[in-house]
C-alpha cells in the first residue's frame, strides 16, 4: 500500500512540473555541443537554436541534432625527391681506387706497429716527388698530408691533373722546386697506394679489411723514414704538414730530432682534444651503422656509401667556417616550395660535398686514419706535454687560423707556448685572420704560402731565430 501511495505522489509531481524549463535545458545542451552560445542567465544568444524554435511552436517535436563544423586539412606531399636521388643515379656506388701516378717503396720486412703488438707482413709506401736532390742530399722537404689527401700534391708528367697543393709547390712557389727536392707520401692506413685496409694481405690474398692493425701517427712517421732511408736521404731540410700532416711533422721532429732540419706544423696541436675527437667519432659511427659496412668486409659486396656520405657531410661542417658561410650562403634559399628536403643553399652544398666524396675514399681508411688522429698525444710515454716536446730541438713554425673550428687557434698558441717552455728558442708562431676555417691551408696562398716560403728559405740558427723579419702576422717566442 505504501508503494502505491509513493508512485501516485511521483506521478502528481511530474504533472505539476513547469514545461518552460525544457527549452532552457535544450538550449544549454546545444550550446555545449557547439550549436550556439547561450545568452545571460541561460537564455539563447543572437543565433536562435533550431531546437529552441521547435519547442516554442510544438513542444512534442524532437529537436534536430546540431551540425558539426566542416574541418579542413591540407598537409605536405609525402614524396621526398632528396631521398630518391640514389635510385635516380643508377647502380650503387663503389670505391673508386685512385691511382695518382705514384712511385712505390716496398719492404719485405715485417713492419711492427706501435699498439697492440700489430705486425704487417710487408710494407708499401706510395709517394711522388718534384725537383732534384742535390749532391749533398740535404735539400729534401717532405710534405705530410691531411686525413683524406693523397701523395698527388702537384701535377707532374706521370699525372698532369692538378694536385691538392698545386699552387704551393713548384718553381718560385712557397715550396720552391728550384731549391728543394719535394716528397709527398701516402699515409699507411690510407687507400692511395700505401698499406691500408683495402690492400691485399699477402698471406691470404684478400683485403686486410678490419684485420688491419691499429696505426698511430708514430707509425706513419716511421714508415716514411723507411722511405727516406730507401731514397738515401739521411736528414731533411724540413718536414711540412697541415692538419693531420701537422701532427706528423711535429712527431717527425720528436722521433728523429737529428734527421729533421726544421718543422712546419699548420693547424694542428700537441694532442687531440675532446671536441675534435667527438666529431670524428660521429663520422665513424655513420660508417659503422651503415648495414653495408658489414664489419669492414664490403670489398666483395655492397659499398657503405650512405654512411660514408653522412660522415663527409659532418666533416665538411668542421672544415670550413661560419664567417665564410655567412658571406657565401647567408640565408639564400633554393627555388621551389618549402619542404623537409633542403631549403637553403648551405644544405645543398653539404649534400653535394658528401655525394662527391663518398666513393673517392675507402670508408675503412677513414676509420683508421681518424682514429690515429684521436690517439695523437705528443706526451705519450712522458710525464707532460712539455717533456714530450723537449725532443723537438729544431726550428719550428706553428701556424694557426682564427676561424678554425676543428683545431681552434688556442691549440696552436698552446703548442707554440709549450715548445718555448720546453726550451726551444727557435719557435715562430704565425696566426692568420682568414674566413676559410680549417681549410685555410688549402686556399690562402698569400698568407699560408708566404709564411712557408719565408720560413723554409730563411737562414735560422739551430737554437735561435736568426734572420727573422717582423711581420704583423708573425709572433716570435
TrEMBL record:
Q: Which Gene3D superfamilies match?
A: alpha/beta hydrolase
MF terms in GO: homoserine O-acetyltransferase activity; serine O-acetyltransferase activity
Entry superkingdom: Eukaryota
The GO cellular component terms are: mitochondrion
Q: Which residues form the AB hydrolase-1 domain?
A: 139-421
GO biological process, alphabetically ordered: cysteine biosynthetic process from serine; homoserine metabolic process; methionine biosynthetic process
Q: Which Pfam families match?
A: Abhydrolase_1
Q: What are the start and end residues of every segment in region (Disordered)?
A: 1-72
Q: Which HAMAP family match?
A: MetX_acyltransf (MF_00296)
The family this protein is said to belong to: Belongs to the AB hydrolase superfamily. MetX family.
What name has this protein been given in UniProt?
Answer: Hypp4915 protein
Q: Which organism is it from?
A: Branchiostoma lanceolatum (Common lancelet)
Tell me the gene name.
Hypp4915
Amino acid at each position: 500500500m505504501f508503494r502505491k501511495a509513493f508512485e501516485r505522489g511521483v506521478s502528481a509531481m511530474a504533472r505539476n512540473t513547469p514545461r518552460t524549463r525544457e527549452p532552457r535545458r535544450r538550449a544549454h545542451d546545444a550550446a555545449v555541443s557547439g550549436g550556439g552560445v547561450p545568452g545571460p542567465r541561460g537564455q539563447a544568444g543572437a543565433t536562435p537554436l533550431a531546437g529552441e524554435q521547435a519547442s516554442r511552436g510544438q513542444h512534442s517535436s524532437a529537436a534536430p541534432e546540431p551540425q558539426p563544423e566542416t574541418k579542413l586539412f591540407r598537409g605536405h606531399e609525402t614524396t621526398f625527391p632528396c631521398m630518391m636521388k640514389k635510385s635516380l643515379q643508377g647502380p650503387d656506388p663503389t670505391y673508386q681506387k685512385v691511382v695518382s701516378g705514384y712511385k712505390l717503396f716496398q719492404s719485405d720486412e715485417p713492419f711492427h706497429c706501435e699498439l697492440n703488438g700489430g705486425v704487417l707482413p710487408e710494407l708499401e709506401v706510395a709517394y711522388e716527388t718534384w725537383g732534384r736532390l742535390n749532391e749533398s742530399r740535404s735539400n729534401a722537404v717532405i710534405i705530410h698530408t691531411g686525413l683524406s689527401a693523397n701523395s698527388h700534391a702537384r701535377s707532374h708528367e706521370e699525372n698532369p691533373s692538378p694536385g691538392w697543393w698545386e699552387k704551393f709547390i713548384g718553381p718560385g712557389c712557397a715550396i720552391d722546386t728550384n731549391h728543394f727536392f719535394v716528397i709527398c707520401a701516402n699515409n699507411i692506413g690510407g687507400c692511395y697506394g700505401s698499406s691500408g685496409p683495402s690492400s691485399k694481405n699477402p698471406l691470404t690474398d684478400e683485403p686486410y679489411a678490419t684485420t688491419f692493425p691499429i696505426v698511430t701517427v708514430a707509425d706513419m712517421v716511421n714508415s716514411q723514414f723507411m722511405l727516406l732511408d730507401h731514397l738515401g736521404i739521411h736528414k731533411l731540410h724540413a718536414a711540412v704538414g697541415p692538419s693531420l700532416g701537422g701532427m706528423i711533422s711535429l712527431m717527425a721532429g720528436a722521433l728523429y730530432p737529428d734527421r729533421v732540419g726544421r718543422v712546419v706544423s699548420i693547424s694542428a696541436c700537441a694532442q687531440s682534444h675532446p671536441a675534435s675527437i667527438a666529431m670524428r667519432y660521429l663520422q665513424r659511427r655513420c660508417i659503422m651503422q651503415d648495414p653495408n659496412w658489414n664489419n669492414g668486409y664490403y670489398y666483395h659486396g655492397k659499398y657503405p656509401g650512405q654512411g660514408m656520405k653522412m660522415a663527409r657531410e659532418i666533416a665538411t661542417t668542421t672544415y670550413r667556417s661560419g664567417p665564410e658561410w655567412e658571406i657565401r650562403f647567408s640565408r639564400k634559399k633554393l627555388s621551389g616550395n618549402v619542404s623537409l628536403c633542403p631549403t637553403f643553399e648551405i644544405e645543398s652544398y653539404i649534400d653535394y660535398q658528401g655525394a662527391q666524396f663518398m666513393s673517392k675514399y675507402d670508408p675503412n681508411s677513414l676509420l683508421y686514419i681518424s682514429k690515429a688522429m684521436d690517439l695523437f698525444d705528443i706526451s705519450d710515454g712522458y710525464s707532460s706535454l712539455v717533456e714530450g716536446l723537449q725532443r723537438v730541438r729544431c726550428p719550428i713554425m706553428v701556424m694557426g687560423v682564427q676561424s678554425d673550428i676543428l683545431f681552434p687557434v688556442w691549440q696552436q698558441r698552446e703548442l707554440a707556448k709549450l715548445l718555448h717552455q720546453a726550451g726551444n728558442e727557435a719557435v715562430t708562431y704565425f696566426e692568420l685572420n682568414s674566413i676559410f676555417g680549417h681549410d685555410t691551408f688549402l686556399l690562402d696562398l698569400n698568407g699560408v704560402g708566404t709564411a712557408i716560403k719565408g720560413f723554409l728559405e730563411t737562414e735560422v740558427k739551430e737554437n735561435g731565430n736568426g734572420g727573422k723579419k717582423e711581420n704583423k702576422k708573425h709572433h716570435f717566442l
